[in-house]
Amino acid sequence: MQVFVRENNVEQAMRVLKKKMQREGVFRELKRRRSYEKPSMRKTREKAEAIRRARKMARKQAQRDGLLPPTKPKIRPGMPGAGARRMPGLAPTS
């Protein structure tokens, strides 16, 4: 994995690296390898992960086919436009 540091901005490069590692599943793998996992528990976990993936793929396919309504994006603090929704009583100004 490679991240370029532009204009000596190490903080930004660290954020990009962390995001890439998160996307690749490196942190999940590190957490999983911290302790020994019995083979039977590994099989159970992998089976549950496969079921979750299959359900997610089926749900997305149903949304594409129009059988399910699309999911609404979650509103998190700090997102653009989220401030007016968090403070009832204040009308958004345009």
Order of helices and strands: HHHH
Low-confidence stretches: none
Q: Which bin fits the share of residues in helices?
A: 55-70%
Strand content: under 5%
The number of helical segments is 4
Alpha-carbon distance between the termini? Answer: 44 Å
Task: Report the structural category.
Answer: mainly alpha
**Can you summarize the main beta sheet?**
none
Q: Can you give the mean pLDDT?
A: 86
Radius of gyration computed on alpha carbons: 20 Å
Which of globular, elongated, flat, extended, rod-shaped describes the shape?
flat
Q: How many beta strands in the DSSP annotation?
A: 0
Structure overview:
Helices cover 56% and strands 0% of the residues. The chain has 94 residues and is mainly alpha-helical. The longest helix is centred in the middle third of the chain and has 27 residues, at 39-65. The radius of gyration is 20 Å and the shape is flat. The termini are far apart. The relative contact order is 0.05.
Topology:
Elements: H1 10-24, H2 26-32, H3 39-65, H4 83-86
Characteristic terms for this protein:
mainly alpha, 0% strand, flat
Concise structural overview:
The protein has helices at 10-24, 26-32, 39-65, 83-86. The protein has 94 residues and is an all-alpha fold.
